[in-house]
Amino acid sequence: MTNQINADFSQSIVVQTNDMEWQKSPAPGIWRKRLELVGEIEAGRVTSLVRFDPSAKFPDHFHPDGEEILVLDGVFSDESGDYPAGSYLLNPEGTNHAPWSERGCTLFVKLQQYPGTGRPQVVIDTTSMEWRPGRVDGMEFLPLYNDPEPGKGFTRLTRIPPGCELGRDLHPGGEEVFVVDGCVEDEYGRHEAGTWFRHPAGSVHHPYSPEGCLLYVKREHLG
Predict the structure, then answer these.
(1) Pick the CATH number of 2-125 from 2.60.40.3580, 1.20.1250.20, 3.40.50.300, 2.60.120.10
(2) For 171-199, what is each residue's pLDDT tens digit?
(3) Which CATH class is domain 130-219?
(4) In terms of C-beta density within 10 A (0-12 exposed, 13-18 middle, 19 or more buried), how is residue 72 classed?
(5) pLDDT tens, 142-161?
(6) What is the DSSP code string of 97-132?
(7) How open is the CA angle 109-219-157, to the nearest 5 degrees?
(8) What pTM, to 2 d.p., does this model score?
């Protein structure tokens, strides 16, 4: 069975995830909010929020085209270790695990969007990394992954101080953003923590952060 959720990548999309209801997953005690889905319901390309109730566990499974995880709260665990809030994971094609959470956690997850063998496994504790200066005063970014394959883009965390205007922001290869904390505004509205938005290749907007914010950003992957 197939389904499509926000599958037209030529359109700008804004999703207020706080207004969505949690939906059951195939595993007891694990819930999800699907933001983007292309293909089969349980085996397609998907971007989602995932919540583990305390002691919930997902059965052992493979990731045929890779898996990306940003831990938003709680502690996420698998056979390789425990990953508290702020952990970033990139599991390459063909890896498998049986994850769980002892006390519960919430994740931002992207599945089947990193095909190709030979990709390294990435584990980053973003709370202990050194941030780099951004393109405007006070703005900072933390690189997470730069894909060596053309057109696959790069991923980073971006921190914007209160009152910062970023000016004209052009996306030749598209942009995808999840607001982790704070608020950012643009022509499409006010995007508070929990908002996910995606702009197509060639789009432009003028972001501004009145109160400051922390953003997950993926760019140049929609061209």
Answers:
(1) 2.60.120.10
(2) 999 999 999 999 999 999 999 999 999 99
(3) mainly beta
(4) buried
(5) 999 988 887 788 999 999 99
(6) E--EESS-EEEEEEES----TTPPPEEEEGGGSPPE
(7) 60
(8) 0.95
